[in-house]
Amino acid sequence: VLYVNSKYEDIAYFNANQWKQLIQQYIPELKKFCLAYYESNTYEHKILNNSSQLSYFVSSFWIERQSIMEIEIHSERLRYAIRSYSNTDNASVKLILKNVHHEKDFSFLKSNIDHILTIVQIYHLEISEVFINTLIQIIILLPRLDSLKVSSLSLKQSKCLSTNETELISLTSNKNQITKIYLEKVTDIEEIYYLLELCPRMIYLQIDSINNIGIESFIRNILIRINIKCYHQLGLLCFSISAADD
Q: 148, 109, 110, 106: which is closest to 126 by C-alpha?
């Protein structure tokens, strides 16, 4: 097991070829590893300005070792990590967005995502609490996205959609390739309806927590919606139901 966590913004710690040579020569039986590198948003982004630093981590050596690349964008920092696959992983390149609460954050996100996509493609997105409108804009930026994990989805901005916003939802629905969605918390069944509409190619939906909603009526309404809207590709619904004494 190898774990290296660099918070000193020394890009030398995140050199794919050097780590490859070290592993091949000294620890060829290495099974679990994590290499993490942090950058502050207030300074020059050394990794993004040295694209080979990331691209080498998706070479055959790292793929054969079943590694996953994580890129985390936070309001104050960026985190890059290469680590071993775990049982919960479902994509080779993962983007994690935290503290995306306001529209003003989007221009910052877009700038970083556009730069990242010149180096690697993103197949899995994890995002904390987010407005549906902001989520749609982010999905548009990630055309190769296959799976999506959302902590909490807010519909506050969606109550009065303009014609342009409605057309944007339709356009996004037609183009995105998302097949798997994981929701950590649901407080309104409308959140599910929006996601079904937004991601018609969804084949898997997992919900970890349902707040203040009767589970039987919740499932019944979802199944009715699926039949009415003909979401025939959705083949698996997964719910986590707490025991009565939890």
A: 148
The domain containing residue 81 runs over which residues? 1-122
3-state class percentages of the chain: helix first, strand second, coil last, to nearest 5: 40, 25, 35
| Amino acid 209: pLDDT | 86
The total of structural domains in the chain comes to 2
User: Measured in whole angstroms, how far is the alpha carbon of residue 18 from the centre of its chain?
Assistant: 28
Distance CA 235, CA 40 (A): 42
Contact (CB, 8 A) for 128 and 75: no
pLDDT at 109 over 60: yes
Does 55 lie in the same domain as 168? no
Q: Mind listing the pLDDT tens digit for each residue in 8-26? A: 567 778 889 999 999 999 9
What residues form DSSP beta bridges with 69? 82, 93
Is the model's pTM score more than 0.70?
yes
